[in-house]
Amino acid sequence: MKKYLLILLIVITGSLAYAQKFEECEDIKLDDEEDFVASEPKVIECVDYIFACKLDDPGKSRENAVVFMFRWAIEAPYDLMIFSWGTKLAKKHPQFIILQLAALVKSKLNNKEADEDVVQLEAATMVYKYIKDPQFRVEVKGPIKKFVAAGDKGILAEFIEE
């Protein structure tokens, strides 16, 4: 009996720990550069959560994370360039724009001094790994298939420059 209670407790604790809400993000001020810098860890947490969810996750937690990430990215003191590789993927599934922006945010924050090519390649690699992960069950057709093929061949840098 104790064994079953312990297992139940572990399962409940694990699910509660992962049930992030990101509701508090609405209250985070983003008025000046100091606010943006101070909120970088929360943005990274949101991005990681977005990359832990399926594309069509209808959950409020993912929505809150996406809203805060967008709010932060729009006025952040960094240049975040949306390249055509993300819009090509979005033709198959509009959520890829969110993934591209999330990957760009994380890449830029991890490589603040890097040039745009490095940031874009790291972001594309994050999206590529997401697509390849079987738990997300991304349908690989059309532009997504070409993107994955480029990643498989190791020519993702050339593909995203097109």
Name the quaternary structure.
single chain
Instruction: Give the radius of gyration.
Output: 18 Å
In DSSP terms, counting alpha (H) and pi (I) runs of 4 or more, how many helices?
A: 9
Average of the residue pLDDT scores: 87
**Secondary structure: number of strands:** 0
Query: What is the rounded distance between the termini?
Result: 61 Å
Which structural class is indicated by helix and strand composition?
A: mainly alpha
Largest sheet geometry: none
The proportion of residues in beta strands is under 5%
Shape: globular
Helix content, binned percent: 55-70%
Give the ordered list of helices and strands. Answer: HHHHHHHHH
**pLDDT under 50 segments (min length 5)?**
1-18
Give an account of the 3D structure.
The structure is a single chain. The protein is mainly α. Helix content is 66%, strand content 0%. It has helices spanning 2-18, 33-38, 40-50, 60-75, 84-90, 95-110, 116-132, 143-153, 156-161. Helix 3 packs across helix 4 (60-75). The longest helix is centred in the first third of the chain and has 17 residues, at 2-18. The chain is globular, with a radius of gyration of 18 Å. The model is unreliable at 1-18 (pLDDT under 50).
Name the descriptors.
162 residues; mainly alpha; 9 helices; 66% helix; globular; disordered N terminus
